[in-house]
């Protein structure tokens, strides 16, 4: 295994992460660097790829040694149960029951363990929506561990579908659905491909802002008239372009947690459908 250190301004963290995934990284570790800069340590199964300097002009890029560390064991050592609204997120080795308010996660299968602000924002948005309306037919787009799909099922949504293009993510989704005893259908698909327009009353998309903007029209078409759409994975600076890309969905409610935000649209297309 090989590793690269990539140091960029904080504002370019998402851009650098996307470039590293495009280059085939197996994983990215984010560390604080100098003031207002971050260091991304990217791991590769083979030699580090060429061309990153062109993809990330101005970044400081250098090879770094790969430590002999059991990363899964280290992560598990530091993972403790925590509360998000009504939900108690618990690692699999500490789970004693399948209570409706417990979400069991296996941190050894990354893709989203509930610890990141974007996932917490989505869980909060889900709980708020469920207090005001039935969730109905729900799609967790880019599901990872399917933690959001499982939470939606716990909150009365159904049928619930978890979709991801990554085969490892779909395996993680199935694993977590079984771990939680949740009735979640797992599908491997590229974003909106494979789903008919208007098929869902609620769509959850916790994805990178660049992908949300690129697939805005496809994602919006998935929502049934009067349905809801939750967009997360947004740094505060990402909000204006994502809001503009989804302007056809109406005016969203913006929810923030630290430097991250989520946009919650309700009654998507509903007003247009009710016009005479």
Major sheet attributes: 7 strands, mixed
Strand order of the largest sheet: 10-9-8-11-12-14-13
CATH class of the largest domain: Alpha Beta
Strand content: 25-35%
Q: What pattern of helices and strands is seen along the backbone?
A: EHEEHEHEEEHEHEHEEHHEHEEH
Oligomeric state as shown? single chain
Number of domains: 2
Mean pLDDT: 89
CATH topology tier name of the largest domain: Rossmann fold
* Termini gap: 63 Å
Q: Write down how many β-strands occur, each being a DSSP E stretch of 2 or more residues.
A: 14
Helix content: 25-40%
Structural class computed from helices and strand pairing: alpha/beta
Count of discrete alpha- or pi-helical segments spanning 4 or more residues? 10
Poorly predicted parts: 271-276
Instruction: Report the CATH superfamily of the largest domain.
Output: Vaccinia Virus protein VP39
User: Which geometry do the CA atoms define?
Assistant: globular
Q: From the alpha-carbon coordinates, what is the Rg to the nearest angstrom? A: 19 Å
Please state the second-level CATH architecture of the largest domain: 3-Layer(aba) Sandwich
Give a nutshell description of this structure.
The chain has 276 residues and is of the alpha/beta class.
